[in-house]
């Protein structure tokens, strides 16, 4: 599978006459509708490069835990311009890009990049089957719902646990008090820390990267069977 699937039935047809680059160049080419959102091509290119470097860093941190087919279904819980998903273009994964219902509706730009996406409020449950995703990426998602919306960070953790498959991963990029909050609840939901790292880019300010893994819940009976 490609890293992302176009929402259109035929991306070659949809790009004709629209000013869009052909697939897969459109993943990293500035879309014509950037100006509608107040973005310049330079801003877009810098965002694309920033997330390329961040994704490389994520994979370096994940490398002791993953193999070629470990991660297939991925969700970016706050996709913005879709650069996280675009940076996965060289991975054999599928990416769902989620944008907030009360923010700029950047789905148009995400679609222009040949990606798919949806609109969602993370104060509520996401409409998907349990254990759908192998990797969830939460960049400033927890701080937004806790500080700006006054919603429950605990409820969000439970929802993440619902939609993430056992042995799947969550990447949290947020302020240290937020990552400390997440770590506090890991034993209760049977998760474990994979890596904690200060963000290597100056543009990230004081953001911290926390990568955690959902463990298998084993009963005492199943433990005896594995002995």
From TrEMBL:
**EC number per UniProt:** 2.1.1.-
Residue segments, region Disordered: 1-25
Q: Report the InterPro entries cross-referenced here.
A: Put_SAM_MeTrfase, SAM-dependent_MTases_sf
Where is the protein localized?
Answer: Endomembrane system; Membrane
Q: Does the keyword Transferase apply?
A: yes
User: Keywords of this protein's UniProt record, alphabetized?
Assistant: Glycoprotein, Methyltransferase, Signal-anchor, Transferase, Transmembrane
Q: Which GO terms describe its biological process?
A: methylation
Tell me a GO cellular component.
cytoplasm
What molecular functions are annotated in GO for this chain? methyltransferase activity
Which family does the entry's similarity section mention? Belongs to the methyltransferase superfamily.
PANTHER family, from UniProt? METHYLTRANSFERASE PMT8-RELATED, SAM-DEPENDENT METHYLTRANSFERASE
Name of the featured protein: Methyltransferase
Q: Which organism is it from?
A: Helianthus annuus
């Amino acid at each position: 599978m490609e890293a992302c699937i176009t929402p259109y039935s035929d991306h070659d047809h949809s790009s004709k006459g629209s000013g869009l680059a052909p697939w897969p160049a459109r993943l990293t080419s500035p879309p014509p509708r950037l100006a509608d959102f107040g973005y310049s091509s330079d801003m877009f290119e810098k965002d694309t490069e920033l997330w390329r470097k961040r994704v490389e860093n994520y994979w370096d941190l994940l490398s002791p835990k993953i193999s070629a087919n470990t991660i297939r279904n991925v969700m970016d819980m706050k996709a913005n311009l879709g650069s996280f998903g675009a940076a996965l273009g060289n991975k054999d994964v599928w990416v769902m890009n989620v944008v907030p219902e009360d923010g700029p509706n950047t789905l148009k730009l995400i679609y222009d990049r040949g990606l798919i996406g949806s609109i969602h409020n993370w104060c509520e449950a996401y409409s998907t089957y349990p254990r759908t995703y192998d990797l969830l990426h939460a960049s400033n998602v927890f701080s937004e719902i806790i500080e700006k919306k006054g919603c429950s960070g605990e409820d969000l953790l439970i929802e993440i646990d619902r939609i993430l498959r056992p042995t799947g991963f969550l990447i949290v990029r947020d302020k240290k008090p937020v990552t400390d909050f997440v770590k506090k609840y890991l034993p209760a939901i049977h998760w474990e820390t994979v890596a904690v790292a200060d963000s290597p880019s100056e543009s990230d300010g004081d953001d911290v990267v926390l990568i955690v893994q959902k463990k298998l819940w084993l009963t005492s009976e199943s433990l005896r069977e594995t002995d």
